[in-house]
Each structure stands twice: as structure tokens, then as C-alpha cells.
Amino acid sequence: MKEQDTAALDAFAREIAGYGRLAAPPALRARLRGALLAAPAVLPHRPSGFGARLLSLRPVLAGIVVLALVAGAGGSAAASSLPGDPAFAVKRAVEAAQVALASDDATRLDVLVAQADRRLGDLQTIATTRPAALATATDEYEGAVSRLDAALTNTLAQAPTAARAAAVARATAASAEHIAELQALAARLPAQAQPGIQRAIEAQQAVHGKSGNAPGRNGNPGRPQTPGASGVPGRPSDLPGGPPPGRAGPPTGVPGRP
Amino acid sequence: MGADELNRNAPIGDRPVHVDAAAEPDLARQAAAGDRRAFAALYDRHLDAVYRYAFYRLRTDAEASDVTSEVFHRALAAMPKYEPRRPFLAFLYGIARHVVADRLHDAAPHASFEDAIAHPSDAPGPAETAARLDDARRLRAAIAKLTPLQQEIVILRFIEERSSKEVAALTGKPESTIRGIQMRALAALRELLTEGAPR
Predict the structure, then answer these.
(1) Which residue from A6, A24, A43 is facing B68, i.e. has the nearest CB?
(2) Partner residue facing B158 (CB), from A16, A135, A195
(3) Which of A100, A211, B78, B113 is surrounded by the most beta carbons within 10 Å?
């Protein structure tokens, strides 16, 4: 190719580089980002055979390592840490080990409900004492709800048993409580904190909707007919006369939503 | 901004988080371990590149959006198997190539160059933005007339400004082949754009 032609093509290449560089539409950017962040957690592939047996020991080893870390790095500091604190990573590692060590999916669901409870408590504490860390606390809460959502999906996909039904009932009741707590929190937070809180409420509404449609619920066959028959003590859905207003029923409107 | 300094106060769906290239391997490792915020940062960094690739390889803006969405969802699902030593964008392009190939395999023939010119932009916003999008659509219609390999080389080499070595790695062709094809592809594209230009 002649030198003159090459120069002309170089100029043309620069020209198309200039007008070819369009950006993704803003609507796609926002919608896809939200969808990716809300997508269910991806579980790593589990191999079979000897490798699987070795890998099955990993949670136990992880637990031992984490316990050693906690002992060495100041367990009490980690236990009382809040999202954004350096020691919070240790606390999360302990929680991850607790999930990994759960003996079955119903137990795992209970563990994740308890962890979501703790994140809600963290969020409420931070809203009062450390508003600058509110976004971090909201993210951590959303992460906990996302893990709970994935575990709930997994539990609902299994054959129904009494233990699973009870765990789902506990998750449902906890979810309704969380929505009410978050709505109360949203009412006293400033405008810039609203998007995060609304996302958190929507995440919990997704959990609630999922568990509310589970087999054995909403009048489907298998639903416990007698208060307390589910064997779930202390949850509003077991109270005589049904759940109190704002608890365990369908989530209501979200304050501040457009 | 580094991997440990993500803007944790930025609301989801707001402005993209800008990340240094040097922080990308750490982010990719965190994302592979299940850190969704790290994945979001990588998404912010590479969304436009993936969208452009889809835009110029497919026929319509809607298909480009669909494919971009599918690429990132597939990438998220594949993160546990992601090899951190591989550049993350190369990982995304690898997925994008497969998704685009599937689409093209199932789709009707490309819209003609004349169609692209006959349907000016309906995009909202300033005239300049609309004109820019129309230019991009004309370019897309011309690129569609190249061979698939030429299309990839033009998009990656001249629109995305990747090196010959990177394009060779992404397409699985020798670098010498890329260098040989790129000028012919460019000449063909210039010819197509000149033919189709309004007189």
C-alpha cells in the first residue's frame, strides 16, 4: 500500500474513532446496574468425588481459621463492630463461616435471618450515631438480604418438610418486621439517604413476596391452621387472631416513594 | 480510586464509579469471590465498551441493549470461574462474542445501509447528541457489510483503540493476520461510507 494511502487511512481511522465512541444509554446503565446488584448470589460449582470430600472440609477449616483470627485480632472488637469499621470484616468472616457450617438449608435460612436482623440493628444504630456511614450500612444490609433471598429461593425449591416450612415461616415473619422497621427508619432519615432505604425495603419486599407465595402458605395446602401449629414460637403470624397490623401481612406502601 | 476506595456512599444506579486500571485485578478477584459492589465497579468501567461492541455488531439499538444486558448477567454468573490473571475486559469480550454470534445466527439479515440513513435518530436530547447517534448508526450499517472478522477488527482496533496484540488475543488470530486484515477492512469501510454519504 502506498504511503499516501496509508496516511489517508490513518486519518480515516482517527475519524471513526472519534464519532464511533458513543456511550451506553443512561436508562440502560441504571436499569442494568440495579438488576445486577439485585441478582441472586452465584454459588460456586461443586465438584464430585474425592475433590468434593476435600472441599467439604473447607468450611470447617475456614471456621477454625476465622476463630483463630477472632481470638488473635480481638474478638470483642469484631463482635461489636459496625459496617465501615476495620474489625467488621472479621465479624463478616465469622458470619460467613456460620453460614458455611449450617447443617441443612433450614438452619442456614435461620442463620441468615439472624444475620439480617443484626444488619438492621447496625443500620438503626448508624442512622443515629454515625450518619456518614449510612450508605455503607445500607449496602451491608442489602447484602444480608440478598444472601437471605438466595437461601430462601433454595429452600423453597426443595421438597417441603416441617423444618423447612417453619424456617420459611420465620423468614416471612422477620421480613414483615424488617419492612415495618425500615419504613419507620425511612420516615426520619434525610432525603439523600432515601434511595438506599427504599432499595432495602424493596429487597425485603421481594423476600416477603417470595416466602408469602411458598407452598403451604396463603391458604395453600399444608398451611398450619392452628396458631402456633407451625412450631414457630414468638413470631407475630402465630399470635391468636392473626398478625397485628403492619406485621406479617403484605407489605404496604413505602413512605417517600415516587 | 483503588479497589479499597470505592465510593460506598454512591447510590446504586447513580453515576458510574471510576476505577484506576491498576485496581482492576483486585476488583476482579473481589468480584470473583462474590463481592457485588466490586462487580458493579467493573461494570461501570466496561459497560460502554461492551455496549459499543454490541452496537456495532448488531442491527438495532434495542438488540445492543439486550446483548449488553445478557453479557453482564452471564459474566456475573461466570464470576466464580473467572481467571483473575486474564484482563476483565477480555473476559467480557469473550462472552460478548458468543452472545453476538448466537444473535446473528438466529437473526434475519442486517438492515441495509440505506435503511439506516432513511431512519434518522429518534433519540431525545440536544441535536448534537442525536446527530452523533446518527453518525454511529451510519457507521454501524457500513460495518455490517464487512466480513465478521473484519467487523471485529474494525470495532476493537479502531473504535475501541485496542492494540493489535490485544485484538489478536481476543479473536484468537495471529497478530500478523490482524495487521494484514486491519488496513483492508479500513479501506473497505471508507469506501462503503463514501458510497453511502448523502450527495
Answers:
(1) A24
(2) A16
(3) A211
* Pairwise CB contact (< 8 Å): A42 & B34: yes
Task: Give the tens place of pLDDT for each residue, B135-192.
Answer: 888 889 999 999 989 999 999 999 988 999 999 988 888 999 998 899 899 999 999 8
Q: What residue segments make up the domains of chain B, in order of their start?
A: 1-108, 112-199
Interior CA angle at A77 toward A145 and A140, to 5°? 15
Residue among B61, B139, B186 whose CB faces A19 most closely: B139
Chain A hits for B183, CB-CB cut-off 8 Å, are 1, 6, 9
Is residue A61 classed exposed, middle or buried when 0-12, 13-18 and 19+ CB atoms within 10 A define those classes?
exposed
Please name the residue that has the C-alpha cell 488470530: B173
Which ipTM was obtained for this model? 0.76
Higher pLDDT, A123 or A229: A123
Distance CA B123, CA A94 (A): 51
Tell me what the pLDDT averaged over chain A comes to: 72
Q: Whole-prediction pTM value?
A: 0.49
Please judge whether B13 and A33 are an interchain contact, meaning their C-beta atoms are less than 8 angstroms apart.
yes
**How far does the CA of residue B52 sit from the closest CA of chain A (Å)?**
7
Chain A residues within 8 A of B141 when measuring between CB atoms: none
CATH of domain B112-199: 1.10.10.10
| pLDDT score at A1 | 57
Per-residue pLDDT reduced to its tens digit, B100-147: 998 887 765 544 444 444 344 444 455 666 777 888 888 899 999 999
- Give me the CATH topology for the region B1-108: Rna Polymerase Sigma Factor; Chain: A (1.10.1740)
A221 burial type by CB count under 10 A (0-12 exposed, 13-18 middle, 19+ buried):
exposed
Task: From chain A, pick out residues whose CB is under 8 angstroms from the CB of B47.
Answer: 24, 29, 32
